[in-house]
Amino acid sequence: CSLDLVTTDATLNISQVITVGAWHHIVVAYNDDADDEITVYVDGKSRGSSTNGVGGPATGDASNLLIGGTTTDNFDGRIDEFKVYSAELSSTDVLIDKNANSAVDFNSKERDVDDLTGGAGNPPVLEWNFDENTGSTAKDISGNTNDGTILNATFTQGKVGSALRFTTTVA
Questions:
Q1: DSSP classification of residue 81
Q2: pTM surpassing 0.85?
Q3: Is 34 left (phi over 0), alpha (psi -120 to 50) or beta?
């Protein structure tokens, strides 16, 4: 995983945490501080943090958010939904998001329902659930009209509703 930063990209390599053919909840969190790190969460668990990033996010591609690949490094699989928050999520927020906006306390066997406010108390600034199931536009359901253009992906069955299917080849 890599985040394009002005001076030195924040990078993190993780292995053996993804089961092929199974759905996973993946979060990449960026913290703009002294070491500008990214943290990768898989299924609600932190799998590591980088410490090599320098500088804020690069602004050269401010209009482009590429999900699933570029022209050479492409994801082979399905993505059911994608969200962007205005600030880093805490580990608790990641678990709440993974559990569809509810926190579960397994010790007390009680279910505490929480609205995910993440991003320093804000809802997502972009949320694509890919449930259009047709067309070439990913509609932003956050209310911020950050619609996206779907390229080199097809609609397929998702974990909930529809998803986008990416392959390692670009059409």
A1: -
A2: no
A3: alpha
Q: Where does residue 69 fall: left (phi above 0), alpha (psi -120 to 50 degrees), or beta otherwise?
A: left
Rounded to the nearest 5 percent, the helix, strand and coil shares of the chain are 5, 35, 65
Contact yes or no for 11/50 (Cβ under 8 A): yes
Residues in the chain: 171
* 132-to-82, 93, 117, 129 alpha-carbon distances in Å: 14, 27, 25, 8
Q: Is 170:69 a contact under the CB 8 Å cutoff? A: yes
Supply the mean pLDDT for the chain.
Answer: 75
Classify residue 21 by burial, with Cβ atoms within 10 Å: 0-12, 13-18, 19+. Answer: exposed
pLDDT tens sequence across 54-112: 777 666 655 566 666 665 666 778 888 888 877 788 888 888 888 765 555 444 444 34
